[in-house]
Amino acid sequence: MTIVNRRRFLQALGLGAASTTLPFWMRGATADDTTGPPKRLIILSSGHGTVWQHWHMNPWGHPDGVQWQESLTGVAEADWSRALRPLYRHRDRLVAVDGLSMASAELDLPGYRHEKGWIHAWTGSWVHFTGDDLFSTAPSLDQIVAAQIGRPDRLASVELSIHGGRPVCHAGLAQQLPLAEDPMAVFDRMFGAAGGASASQGSVLDYVLAEYDALAPKLSAWDRSRMEQHFDLVRALEQPSDRAQTQLPPLRPANMLIEGSIVAYESNVRTGGFGVRYLGIGPSDLYRQDQVTINLRAVDIRSGDIIQSVTTTKTVFSIQLDFGVFKFVSLRHLLEVETGLSRNEPVQQCVREAIEAGLIHLIAQGARDGSWNLKNPDDLKKPLLAGYLKAYDEQTMNTPITAAEQSKLSGEIHAQ
User: Fold this and answer.
1) Residue 89 covered by a domain
2) Which residue range is the domain that position 118 belongs to?
């Protein structure tokens, strides 16, 4: 693989040294500019990529593994690749890039290679794993461009798909934009509903408003925030072009930030094994124990004070079982047979369990110390939270002060 530095890559795409964040066709563009024709960006994506042999073209005969750059204006149409040939007449305004590596996706969480590739290719950011699916942690390229060149009298972006393509457009953290497949629905969205639609038509959200009002009190603050973001996104998608809302409302400010990290990972904290053989025949087993340590903190954003801090550990077990035969079957013939299996506990699962345990510890300790209040104070006495608090007290050798002891202690202080 050949590495190309960032400056040369940006120059090849038409980015000058004075502007390394926005392409030339976005410089000076503002969302409030409604004069002149609107700027448009069209991005095509194939779920499994293109056929490289039909994309790649090298009529100059450059060897593999070296960097090279050539002008496309002097290349005959017959020498163009099958995939790029339809763009031949635009060759004087075309930049073809080949040989890019999706190395960032390989450095992300294990597995989900297709999903990671789609997200990294469009956002350049790490993925957000919910336990069931992957989402982006940042807006995709099309939405970043739309925020720069979008106009209030036009739809900011339109996401289309054929044959059930996977959504690759993202508005932000875990905000995956749906792709439209029905041509009539796309027409209605861009030009108004067919058959004489009027501005008095209601939103589809109006039909579920009563159900939402009944459900909202039962949701947590986080769930209500996510639901309201979804409602705002749907309303933005419903607006016709003459009333398009190109920007979603800003996120509500948070008063508290929960942050943390993996502070330690010790290997071979404990190792051992056991084996027995009789006449050269017998089993044996070996085990190894690793340990991962997680620290979580709740920080007051307004003052920077650390409200609560917890540290949790999780062990990672690896076990190996063997069975062997080592004996003479005759005077000059020695038989040796070995078989076995091993099992390694997934490190990613252990880290996730440590984070989940730390978060529950953080919630329980903060509720007991008065840092925040539970919606139902009696939940602190339920087995789950009570068990975590008991385990914490046993490990730290602290005993919670009862109400009677607290009153007695307060009386002694006043008496002094």
Assistant:
1) yes
2) 6-195
Quick one: DSSP state of residue 66? S
Q: Is the sign of the CA dihedral 99, 126, 149, 169 positive or negative?
A: positive
Same domain, 308 and 176: no
Check whether residue 77 and residue 154 sit in a common domain: yes
Residue 393 pLDDT > 60, yes or no? yes
Please report, for the domain that includes residue 356, its CATH number: 3.40.50.10610
Can you tell me the distance from the alpha carbon of 266 to that of 273, in angstroms, rounded to the nearest whole number? 19
Say what the pTM is: 0.42
Q: Does residue 216 lie in a domain region?
A: no
Number of compact structural domains in the chain = 2
Residue 148, domain member (yes or no): yes
Residue 13 has pLDDT above 70, yes or no: no
Q: Which of 63, 97, 70 is nearest to 83 (CA)?
A: 97
Nearest to 184 by CA among 160, 204, 212, 202: 160
CA triple 351-285-350, angle to 5 deg: 5
Question: How many Å apart are CA 138 and CA 175, to the nearest integer?
Answer: 9
| Angle at CA of residue 248, ends 243 and 252, nearest 5° | 140
